[in-house]
Amino acid sequence: MKSLIGLILLLVSLSLMADEHNHIHLSKLQIFNLGVKTGTLKAVKKVPLLYAPAKVVVPPTQEHVASASQAGLVSKLLVTVGDKVKKGQIIGQLNSPELLVLQQQFLRAQSEKNLSLVNFQRDKRLLDGGIIARKRWYEAKSRYHNSESEVNANKQLLAIAGMSTTAIKSLARNRKLNSKLNIYAPISGVVLEQMVRTGERLGVFSPVYKIANLNKLWLEIKLPQEQMTNIKLGDQVKIQDTEITTKISLLGNSVDKKTQTVLARAIVHGKTSELRVGQQINTQIVQQSHQVFFEVQNVAIAQNDGEFYIFVRTEAGFLAKQIKILGKEGSYSVITGDLIGTEEIATRGAVALKANWLGLGAEE
Question: What does each C-alpha distance from 80 to 34, 62, 85, 91, 92 come to in angstroms?
Answer without folding.
Answer: 65, 19, 10, 9, 10
